[in-house]
Amino acid sequence: MILTLALDAMGGDAGPEMVVEGASIALSQAKGISLHFQFFGQSSVVNAELIKFPDLFSVSTVFDCETIITNQTKPSLAVRSGRRSNMGMAIDAVAKGQAQAVISAGNTGAYMALSKVILKTLDGIDRPAIPAILPTINGKAVVLDLGANIDCTPENLVQFALMGEAFARRLLKIDRPSVGLLNVGSEELKGNATVQAAFQTLKEFPDLNFQGFVEGNDIAFGKTDVVVTDGFSGNIALKAIEGTARLIQHFLKEALASSLRGKLGYLIAKPAFKQLQMKGDPRRYNGAVFLGLKGIAVKSHGGTDPLGFSNAIGVAIDMIKHDFIKSVEDRLSLMTAKVEADL
Amino acid sequence: MILTLALDAMGGDAGPEMVVEGASIALSQAKGISLHFQFFGQSSVVNAELIKFPDLFSVSTVFDCETIITNQTKPSLAVRSGRRSNMGMAIDAVAKGQAQAVISAGNTGAYMALSKVILKTLDGIDRPAIPAILPTINGKAVVLDLGANIDCTPENLVQFALMGEAFARRLLKIDRPSVGLLNVGSEELKGNATVQAAFQTLKEFPDLNFQGFVEGNDIAFGKTDVVVTDGFSGNIALKAIEGTARLIQHFLKEALASSLRGKLGYLIAKPAFKQLQMKGDPRRYNGAVFLGLKGIAVKSHGGTDPLGFSNAIGVAIDMIKHDFIKSVEDRLSLMTAKVEADL
Fold first, then answer.
1. Helices (DSSP H) in chain B: which residue ranges?
2. Per mean pLDDT, which range of A48-52, A200-204, B56-60 is the poorest?
3. Which positions 261-280 of B are in contact with A (Cβ < 8 Å)?
4. Within 13 Å, how many C-alpha atoms sit on residue A310's CB side?
5. What is the pLDDT of residue A340?
6. Which terminal residue of chain A has fewer beta carbons within 10 Å of its beta carbon, N or C?
7. What is the pTM of this model?
8. Is the dihedral of CA A171, A175, A181, A184 positive or negative?
9. Chain A residues inside the 8 Å CB shell of B273
10. A-chain residue closest to B74, CA distance
11. Which residue in the set B150, B215, B242 is minimally distant from A192, CB to CB?
């Protein structure tokens, strides 16, 4: 299998140094796949980094860009500079079929806007969404949207539900994923007008395992495989979850360090704590796909390191291998066809 | 110090049995205070429970109510039955000055609506809010609103900020509490129109230590002493935090139980784990005050046990001892006066 990946070389807090080293890690980990990389950015800077990794250098092409978008560039300027920028050119490579996926650690707003314009959304989808895969007591849950869409209509939420279901079906390999709508209570009468209206539509949807409203704690309890919410509440909830995980690790360390027995117990049980820490390493979960586009665009966390960026590349490879866009498209058209048949 | 507390005897999943035993625990723990209790509910049932606790019986009065609101009663009916119900009569006792605070584990919506009608809101406050005190890396933070107000205007958010600041000043004894507005990013341009407008007003507020936008993870990191948000996002974030705390405890147990070394280490470090568990016991944090009313109304979690209910009573006693309403009122009028002087 030969894959070509388009990388925004200038995105991320650490810039080309991080992106290039991340690509080199991804290359060394790719098994049974022949990887090719296209780097988009300031070619002199990128080449200076590439030269450090001969194996990577031999499978890479560097494209020099007229405009450079960094994490300091305003989103409005980034969007205006369009296809001539590092970000825009990398996305365009996917639109033109020259690469199978694009990965960027750059500004989320600009990346989302450019991806939507250049790659276009799937039929029936107005706005792409960013899903996250979170650990639950009984496995994993897909939560979306995580910040791409601040103000959502009921229609947006319904589309997120369908996209999330297709995502869970394909990526998490769940046969008939259950879907919940995030709200302040599980009773039918709770919540604002937007979730109320989305609830009514989703309830009537044929062939969807819709479980109604779920609450914030139901994410961790794994009540449904897919949790749908607007980007405002979703982003706040995701970050609150991240903060809590770090806080408890801090409390745990503090409690164990406060006594000799605690320290001794920690030393003996160290492998168990390592196992717990691995589970919580944010670099393992780096890489969020923009769901609902006609091409694969993966967003890496801006503050990530090379290992984290290589995981974002891994997410893109996974999507390509699963023929992800096609399967989401098929599932969406199947469900839409059923709705139309019902009318 | 002699205090009279009005208790909704019928509220909570476990009803009078839980409420009466909770009062008896609170009575046994009150030091230097002479407590009196007024129970509002179905007198025969309440008396049958009271008789089991002679000390409590001797300082209690039971009021029989025309209408009984339980957790199964619809909020609309609860509000209609108004002052004649267990909940309404208990609140009315505070409005009439016959009790210094009311505590109920009953339906939140009905309790909030009745409290607002009977006790009235403070000058300058349109809608009461429910704050929570959450642990952070460097202490505690006040987060509000937690579900009382699903749809919020910028004015509501500004009022929550002022109430939260007064709350942190008085209850957490923080000299000049810092205040943050919860959003999807810390940059000034992020978020929806509501938080944008609230931001502009709060920025101009004299004598307020406003730190701008904060993100979900900043709650746990203790970036500000007060975190302001609408009741929809706030409720989802709070429950997501609770769920995550439970999930990590679950992962920790699982990791330690998966090997002999883990089990042995756990046994040795057991006191440290107990300390951690205590910190996370939800019963310790039970009891949320309705902030912004002209009287003290404390909401206990509906599913709590007697110990948890006694903690809610403890919250009410704390509020009375601190002359809480007066101090919030003073602080609000001081700040409002400064704004008027500025205009």
1. 15-29, 43-50, 54-57, 75-81, 86-95, 108-119, 154-171, 193-204, 216-221, 231-257, 260-268, 270-280, 306-321, 324-342
2. A200-204
3. 261-262, 264-273, 275-276, 279-280
4. 17
5. 66
6. C
7. 0.87
8. negative
9. 255
10. A189
11. B150
CB B236 within 8 A of CB A237: yes
Could you tell me if residue B191 is left (phi over 0), alpha (psi between -120 and 50 degrees) or otherwise beta?
left
**Which residue of A130, A187, A241 to mutate against B (max B Cβ within 10 Å)?**
A241
From chain B, pick out residues whose CB is under 8 angstroms from the CB of A192: 150-151, 232
Question: Among A272, A325, A208, which residue's Cα sits nearest to residue B262?
Answer: A272
Q: Which pair of tokens denotes residue B52?
A: 């089991």
Residues 138-177 of A with CB under 8 A from B: 147, 150-151
Q: B147: which chain A residues are within 8 Å (Cβ-Cβ)?
A: 184
Q: Does residue B180 sit at the A interface (CB-CB below 8 Å)?
A: no
Residues of B in contact with A136 (CB under 8 A): 247
Interface residue B100 vs chain A (CB under 8 A) = no
Question: Rounded to whole angstroms, how far apart are CA atoms B243 and A86?
Answer: 40
Chain A nearest-CA residue for B246: A220
| CB within 8 Å: A184 and B235 | yes
CA pair distance B202, A26, nearest whole angstrom? 47
ipTM at complex level: 0.86
Cβ contact, residue pair A272, B250, below 8 Å: no
Per-residue pLDDT at B31 exceeds 70: yes
Among all residues of chain A, which has the CA nearest to that of B148?
A184
For B150, the closest of A191, A258, A272 (CB atoms) is A191
A273 in Cβ contact with A248 (< 8 Å): no
Per-residue model confidence (pLDDT) at position B146: 87
Residues from chain A that touch B266, judged by Cβ atoms under 8 A, are 265, 269
- The token pair at A294 is 């006609």
User: How far is the C-alpha of B287 from the C-alpha of A184, rounded, in Å?
Assistant: 19
B192 touches chain A (CB under 8 A): yes
CB A294: neighbour CB atoms within 10 A? Answer: 17
Give chain A's mean pLDDT: 89
Average pLDDT over every residue of A256-272: 86
Residue A228: name the closest of A194, A279, A260, A254 by CA.
Answer: A194
Length of chain B: 343
Residue A94 CA to chain centroid, in angstroms?
A: 17
What digits encode the pLDDT tens for the residues B160-188? 999 999 989 888 889 999 999 999 987 77
Q: Say what the pLDDT of residue B189 is.
A: 74
- Please say if the pLDDT value at position B311 is more than 70: yes
Q: Which of A187, A171, A167 is nearest to A179 (CA)?
A: A167
Closest listed residue to residue B96, CA positions, set B295, B328, B291: B295
Kindly determine whether residue B241 and residue A238, on different chains, have CB atoms separated by under 8 Å.
no
Does the CB of A77 have a partner CB in chain B at under 8 Å? no
Partner B contacted by A302 (CB < 8 A): no
Q: What is the pLDDT of residues A117-136, one digit of tens each?
A: 999 999 889 989 999 888 89
Highest mean pLDDT among A317-326, B121-130, B173-182, B317-326: B173-182
